[in-house]
Design a protein that fits this description.
There is one protein chain. By secondary structure, the protein is an alpha+beta fold. The protein has a single domain (39-252, 269-301), classed as Jelly Rolls. The chain contains 4 helices and 15 strands. The chain has helices at residues 2-31, 48-51, 281-293, 311-314; strands at 52-56, 61-64, 69-74, 80-84, 88-98, 107-114, 125-131, 140-146, 157-160, 170-176, 180-185, 188-194, 209-216, 236-249, 295-298. Strand 11 (180-185) and strand 12 form a beta hairpin.
């Protein structure tokens, strides 16, 4: 019996070691992204109250740590949001966000740029949208793009994240210049929209505000609206800190980009340098990794929706 017990214990320990090796070897390449340059280190982090004003739901916007961070709250009474004090033409825009945990179906957290208040019929928009989940799914990250009022032709792409966004803060970044728009998560590019002739007519080209919101997207957010917000789990709180707003600031009372300015350097466009014109090899590796491992929807692959794909989908 002792011999049998010893062998059983030995085999069990070897099996556990094997399982640990398999888990590590499997999870490593899937859940740990490639090393990339930390573009967020190029620009200064701001307190939330330095860069933003309350957009809506004032009672559900709670400044914390003397305004260096903020909580945005969704409950039965209202969602809430912040809007940048300035409007920007091109630049680098980042927010570190921590998302609400538990049952979040129908909840939408957005970090985006828009000028719909100034150009209601031909506005531009660059979107991060984080879509809540039912008990069987993780948060979904959706990116979208509208240009020059192309609001009837969404350009959505959807991803599963490689981390739990409710456990800690993670960086969500928009890099926008004349060469391309890049969406980044923790400095890893997840999507690049190259400014070429195929997309030029709908490429965002007017100054925009930077906005962060939490709101009720029951009609569409989780499995096409199958799972609405359950307010038994409210309040839903997302926290925001360490924002970066480095762009060409549009002067008041004009929409002309030639009148914008930067306070920090002589260059009007903070992302006009060579290092921001195209992705590096490291960044391309990261982009490829995300899109192969974590992207599960792209409008450019949706032949049911588009009998003829948008021109940028087939351009080189």
């Amino acid at each position: 019996m002792d011999f049998f017990h010893h062998n059983k214990t030995f085999l069990l320990s070897q099996f556990l070691i094997f399982c640990m090796i398999v888990v590590v070897s499997c999870r490593g390449p899937v859940y740990k992204p490639p090393e990339v340059e930390k573009l967020t280190d190029h620009f200064s982090r701001l307190s939330v109250n330095q860069g933003y004003n309350v957009f809506f739901g004032g009672a559900n916007v709670r400044m914390t740590n003397n305004g260096s961070s903020a909580d945005l709250i969704l409950d039965k009474s209202s969602g809430s949001g912040l809007i940048s004090k300035e409007k920007y033409y091109y630049g680098f825009f980042n927010a570190a966000l921590k998302l609400p945990a538990h049952f979040t179906s129908g909840v939408v957290i957005a970090f985006y740029m828009s000028n719909s208040d100034v150009f209601p019929h031909n506005h531009d928009e660059i979107d991060f949208e984080l879509l809540g989940h039912d008990k069987r799914r993780d948060w979904v990250l959706q990116t979208n793009l509208y240009g020059n009022g192309s609001v009837h032709t969404g350009r959505e792409e959807k991803f599963y994240l490689w981390f739990d966004p409710t456990l800690d803060f993670h960086d969500y970044t928009i890099l926008w210049n004349n060469h391309h728009i890049v969406f980044l998560v923790d400095n890893v590019p997840i999507r690049e929209v190259v400014h070429n002739t195929a997309i030029s007519s709908v490429y965002p080209s007017k100054p925009m505000s930077v906005i962060a919101t939490i709101w009720d997207g029951s009609e569409w957010a989780t499995h096409g609206g199958k799972y609405p917000v359950n307010y038994q789990y409210a309040p839903f709180v997302t926290s925001m800190k360490e924002v970066e707003l480095e762009g060409c600031v549009r002067q008041q009372n004009t929409s002309a980009t030639s009148t914008c300015f930067r306070r920090s350097t002589s260059s009007l466009d903070p992302v006009d340098g060579e290092e921001f014109m195209k992705l590096s090899q490291q960044q391309m590796t990261g982009l490829d990794w995300v899109r192969r491992k974590h992207m599960f929807y792209s409008y450019c692959q949706d032949t049911n929706r588009y009998k003829v794909l948008p021109p940028e989908c087939t351009s080189n």
